[in-house]
## 1
Amino acid sequence: MKTHYGIYGGQYVAETLMAPLRELEAAYEAAKKDVAFAREFKGILHDYVGRESPITYAKRLSEHLGGAMILLKREDLNHTGAHKVNNTIGQALLARRMGKKRLIAETGAGMHGVATATVAALFGMPCEVYMGAIDVERQAPNVERMKMLGATVHAVPEGSATLKDAMNEALRDWVTNCADTFYVIGTVAGPAPYPEMVRDFQSVIGVEARRQCLEKYGRLPDEAIACVGGGSNAMGLFAGFLDDPEVKLVGVEAGGKGVASGEHAASINGGRLGVLHGAKTMLLQTDDGNILDTYSVSAGLDYPGVGPEHCHLHDIGRAEYTVIDDDEAIAAFDAHCRFEGIIPALESSHALAEAIKRAPKLGRDKILLVNLSGRGDKDMENVMRYKASSANSSQV
Ligand SMILES: *Cc1c(COP(=O)(O)O)cnc(C)c1O
């Protein structure tokens, strides 16, 4: 089992959490070797999520930019509208296999909470979601969705009352109730085996995309581009191409108001080495090690850390990590709506913005594969508010 990625990863947890982590490791190792588990996972992805998701040639946008061909991996077409459900289905199946009766999760923007509540309903399991009290207020529609799906939402008032505090509470619940409870983590972060396990469940994105690209265009893409919050949609895409050194891997972090402003969520480009949620990784922290609050126009990208495997891929030069700021992401969102008739998630708009920068510099024979991690219906209000406030500020 993989516990470390270079100097990153590991299991930096209290002694009391070692036993449930060992149990999880053993169960996951056994499940990985079990063809029946893989078959059931694949079946649910097909029948319930609607996989496989297609790749779409963004023809008008590519022609407008006048360079490389932009291909979109359409995770926005999944049931629930994003990639997160691939992972929650995998973990819920594992929970059932382990005889766990109850699912718990942490959530920031609420999307992972909704994805977990969704599979809890599908599998008939009770579900409790921890969410910072401030996030509960900011993300009211997702709180309602979780409740509608039958989950209980706990508002966490401690600390800064955001994602990192919710994660601490979920860990506390898990320690207390691990005999019957499975902790569903939403990204390639947390202590081993979560980063590997979440990557494996999301690797369906990259494995499908690689095959689809070969079938349809007779060759691999030149670059595979994805946004990075905690890094699960990006690791899922990259997993399909790690053994193809000719495919450049590009992760895009949220630059918010610019890395220099301090208001961003770019853990690799603007963070430092530390320990967060049981893993050694790059994260946003003060000089004395307090976790900083993150900022991005896209709520789903504002996790203060990043998956350990990304830090390693960065160190060894296998993947490149860039930054896209709020304005660039909103411009890409607009372009994508008007040229392609697809409203992208603001998270995914960061990856699109990177492709829009790169495409004109490349020949028409090049292929940029972008992971469209989710659809943007959830972001409408946010986009309108952002535009209204930037219109106001440009008047002064
Ligand atoms: C949550 C989310 C992300 C960010 O999470 P990762 O783990 O980095 O993939 C990206 N896109 C969408 C649509 C999301 O909901």
## 2
Amino acid sequence: MVHVVVLFLSCLWQVVGVFADTDAVKSVSVMEGDSVTLNSDLTEMMDEDLIYWRFGNENTVIAEIDVLADRITVYDDVPDGRFRDRLKLDHQTGSLTITNTTTEHAGVYQLEVKDRVSKSFSLTVYARLPVPVIISNSSQCSSSSSNCSLVCSSVLNVCDATLSWYKGISVLSSISVCDLSISLSLPLEVEYQDKNTYSCVLNNPISNQTTHLDINTLCHTCAGPDQGLPLLYIVLISAGTLVIVAVAAVVGIYKKCRKTVQEAQEVTYADPTFYKRNPQKSDVKEEDEVVYADVRR
Ligand SMILES: *[C@@H]1O[C@H](CO)[C@@H](O)[C@H](O)[C@H]1NC(C)=O
Ligand SMILES: *[C@@H]1O[C@H](CO)[C@@H](O)[C@H](O)[C@H]1NC(C)=O
Ligand SMILES: *[C@@H]1O[C@H](CO)[C@@H](O)[C@H](O)[C@H]1NC(C)=O
Ligand SMILES: *[C@@H]1O[C@H](CO)[C@@H](O)[C@H](O)[C@H]1NC(C)=O
């Protein structure tokens, strides 16, 4: 009984499959810059065949073959010149090849062999992926944490791309955003002593770009000799600054003291008997009093 049901189901599935196949739009993918062939699946053309290749929503004819007239024509300046020098037709099968593809060539293509065959192709052109970049996101060496903080990032202007961190061959984390001119970035924390192999992979359905993580290059610990030297400089500079400030203070204090001493000395000299012995000086009394007042303060 079970067998019969399974048999029936698989038979039904095949029938549905056949119908689906007839109507289905065949999906074809290509990497930007590569060539792609839309296969007519014809082994050979018949004597009276008229074959048309059409592109896009407008169903613009971009190529045609008239077997009877023995004529092959490529209209590569329609709709807007995007196919110029890029179309090739196979004389035997009528298959269409687009060379040096760009994302402008993505879209629906239709093959019509008059009164015989009709086929649709949906072409997806994937952009070439840039190599992802790994940088350390630890602002400085950290003695408090045993972890190194990393970020893998990539800038691209297409959808269908995923950025992932791999530990060995297993995925640790992934990010995938579809936007215009996007920057994908994905963080990772590893321990400084970690001996596993990590890699950051950018992939789309038909290709990938991989960057391997070199922990020794990107992650530094404070104990390393590289960090010791700047620290020494900081100490030296601080000490130097302290010395200069101290010297300046001492000089300032010394000058002030000397001034006070001088004033005090002037006071000594400015005793009335001294001025009396110098007749040129006038206002002796007043100056005398001013200086004394100053010192008392
Ligand atoms: C491919 O196309 C690009 C522009 O779309 C052009 O710059 C380049 O020269 C072409 N390469 C070949 C081999 O035709
Ligand atoms: C780097 O780390 C800081 C916090 O330490 C975080 O705010 C920032 O988003 C990180 N940068 C990236 C690109 O992940
Ligand atoms: C350090 O990284 C490990 C994974 O490598 C993580 O489990 C742990 O929580 C991290 N520790 C800190 C303090 O971030
Ligand atoms: C990347 O692509 C290569 C083939 O180009 C494949 O061997 C490899 O498994 C891919 N790696 C990932 C992580 O998808």
